Each structure stands twice: as C-alpha cells, then as structure tokens.
Amino acid sequence: PMVDALARIREDINAGMNVHEAFRRTGRFNDTIIGLIQAGSEAGQLHQAFQSLATRMKSELFFQKQLKKATITPGVIIGVLTGAFIVSQVKIVPQVEQMLNGVGAKADGMTPISFKVSHFTQAVWPVFVLSVIAIGVIIVRSASVRNMILGFAMSNWRLLRLLIMSLRQMTFLSTIRLLHSNGINLAKSIRVSANSVRNTPFYQELRDAADKYEHSGVPLSTAFAKYTSVDAQITHMLAIGEKSASLDSQLEMLCEMYEEDSQNHMNTFSAALGFIVLIIAVSLIAAVFIGTFLPIFLMGPKMMQAGA
C-alpha cells in the first residue's frame, strides 16, 4: 500500500500538484507530516523537512519498540503460565482425585485444600477466560476505556506516570520544534502538535494555549502555564526563549531533556515490570507444582497401600 501511495504522489507532483497536497491526497499521512512538508516546500528546504521527519519517526519507532517490549512479552508470559495453571487444575488434579477415590484412600494434609482449589477453578475458569477476552476487546476498541485505565494506573504508580508524561511531552515538544524551525508560525505549530497527543488531556490544553497565545496576546510561557498541565521546567525554558529570542534553542534543549528522561524512565519501568513478572511467574509455577504434583507425592504411598 505504501508503494502505491508513493507512486500516486509522484504522479500528482508530475501533474503540477503541490508536494504537501499530493501527500494529503493519499490519506496515509497525518497533519503533522503534511504541515512539515508544506513548511519545507514553501521555505525551499524540503530536504531538511524530510530529514527532520526521518529523525522524528526513528525516535518514535524506538520508543514504541521499547514500550511494546516492556509490556507485550510479560503479558504473553503471564498468559501462558495462567493457561498452564488452569489446565493443571481442570485436567490433571481431577485425575489424581479420581484415583484417590478409586482406591478408597482418604485425603489429608494439604491435599483437600488442593482439591478445593481445583473444584473452584473448574467452576469459574470459563467465566474468567471469557471475561479476560471481553475486557481485552473493549480495551482495544475503546480509547475512553484505555484512557480511564491508564489514568487510574498513572494515579497509583508514580513511575508509570513519569514515563507516560515524559513521552507525551517529548512528543508534542519535538513536533512544535520541527514545525516552528521549518517556518510554520508558533500558534499553528502548537495546534498541529496537539494532533500527536490526541486522546490525551494535552490535546485540548495545547489547542486552548495556542488560541490564547494567538488571540489574547499573552506570552507563550504564560499560556502554557495557565492553560496546560506541562511541567514547570517547560514554561520556565519557554520564558527564557521568549526573552532572549532563542525559542528554537530552548525547544531543542527541552526535546533532548525529555528524550533522555523518557529513556531513563523506560529503563526503570522495564526493570520494575520484569521484577513483577518474575514474581508472578514464580507464583504461578509454584501454584501449578503445589496444586498438581504435591497431591501425587503426598497421596502416592497411601494409594499404594490401599491398592495392596
């Protein structure tokens, strides 16, 4: 599909259409990319615009890969171990119980508890599996549910909140810097950058700040301080940039700071999540062992005596 889109872009450009309109016509590129291409085309710096886009997309792909690696792999591990626990409780433990009843031996010690856990698992596992699937489908299809869950998790886990906030702020700051440094006015740069954090609280906040900055005449740092929930260091450095006419430099420094912060938080988050997954995995393995093999070890001698 991308090859076809690029071929259509080439045909439209050869037919005399503007570069950014040719990209927009495909419907495959967002407003941020189109806006940057337009700015580069109008300023005669199209190569620089594409180079900036390549750098931005490379950074985004890196963090997306890191985030998926930190969440998908642990989820798969926990899912497989949970499935193994359910299979052991539904298939193996009932066979042990049946063998025990067949020889007339009486369960004692921890064995009755293991059998009760098996009975409970057999009763609820279909509901549990269907509930997990239904919740997964709802989360995938509903952005509001994802935001609600993410907001709850961020409010209760400081490390996750720091990671998400740094990623979001890095995203829109880098977009503002790319657009503004390539000739798009600041208010429009902020509005377009809001599209990069759509479905987050920053989206409307950035649009409100852009409107106040453009129509009310308030300084950019004041608009960000009053109408957004960005970190204080952002408003402080924006104020320095306005007073010293070095806004592009301040935006570049902010992007570098938040990219470094995001990487540090990502590393810490991955380590913490790996530790949590390790604890859950050990617990599930222990549950499978205790629930499946312990009754066999404990009741084996009794079954042999009863059979004799």
Key attributes of the depicted protein:
single chain, 308 residues, 12 helices, mainly alpha
What does it look like?
- The protein has 308 residues and is mostly helical.
- 86% of the residues lie in helices and 0% in strands.
- It contains twelve helices and no strands.
- Helix 4 runs antiparallel to helix 5.
- It is elongated.
- The model has no long low-confidence stretch (mean pLDDT 83).
Task: Present the secondary structure layout.
Layout: H1 2-14, H2 19-26, H3 31-42, H4 46-102, H5 111-141, H6 143-156, H7 158-181, H8 186-194, H9 201-215, H10 220-227, H11 232-243, H12 247-307
Helix pairs in contact: 1-2, 2-3, 3-4, 4-5, 4-7, 4-12, 5-12, 6-7, 7-8, 7-12, 8-9, 9-10, 10-11, 11-12
Low-confidence sequence ranges: none
Tell me about the biggest sheet?
none
Could you state the order of secondary-structure elements as H and E? HHHHHHHHHHHH
Global outline: elongated
- Secondary structure tally, helices: 12
Q: How would you classify the quaternary structure?
A: single chain
Give the integer mean of the pLDDT values. 83
Radius of gyration: 29 Å
Beta-strand residue percentage: under 5%
Q: How many angstroms separate the termini? A: 72 Å
What's the total count of β strands?
A: 0
